[in-house]
Amino acid sequence: MDIKDIQNLIKFVSKAEVSEVKYKTKDFEITIKTPLGGNEMTYMQQPAVYHSAPQQHVSQAPAQVSAPVADAPAAANVSDDSKFVTIKSPMIGTFYRKPAPDKDVFVNVGDEVSTGKVVCVIEAMKLFNQIESEISGKIVKILVDDMTPVEYDQPLFLVDPS
């Protein structure tokens, strides 16, 4: 099953107004749940895309999310971006810093992240995709506002791997 088939299946489930669909073959399985089935959401993990240095077009990204005063010194040290690793969006969708409106954010500026830690969620076609860190380090800058659309390969975070 390729990505086009998956996208068509998601569109079909959305239009059919059903609460859950399971599709299984001998080497592939997918479950799609819609809000009609209750408050449950299916999280599909996507590999995060990392690049060693941000490109010149980073300035086109939305403004940084305001950081608490305690994090101001960490943000002030972001003068030389070349030593930081950029976490980029692996897909088009809506960027969320929290798993739910009443929950705390996944990460803030100054937080330490380790491999496998969820740093954000991107909603695409009514599926919430958890984006996990593939590196360990410290978040030095958040480049996208909460609940804003993101493009494929758009920078989301700067991480200091040292």
Corresponding CATH superfamily of the largest domain:
RNA polymerase II/Efflux pump adaptor protein, barrel-sandwich hybrid domain
Helix fraction, binned, reads: 10-25%
> What is the fold-level CATH name, i.e. the topology of the largest domain?
OB fold (Dihydrolipoamide Acetyltransferase, E2P)
Based on helices, strands and strand pairing, what is the structural class? mainly beta
Please provide the ordered H/E string of secondary-structure elements: HEEEHEEEEEEEE
Main sheet overview: 5 strands, antiparallel
Portion of residues in beta strands equals 25-35%
CATH class group of the largest domain: Mainly Beta
CATH architecture of the largest domain: Beta Barrel
Helical segment tally? Answer: 2
Tell me the number of strands: 11
Described by the principal axes of the CA atoms, the overall outline is: elongated
Q: What is Rg?
A: 17 Å
The N- to C-terminal Cα distance equals 40 Å
**Uncertain residue segments:** 51-76
> Order of strands across the biggest sheet?
3-4-11-9-6
What's the overall average pLDDT, rounded?
Answer: 76
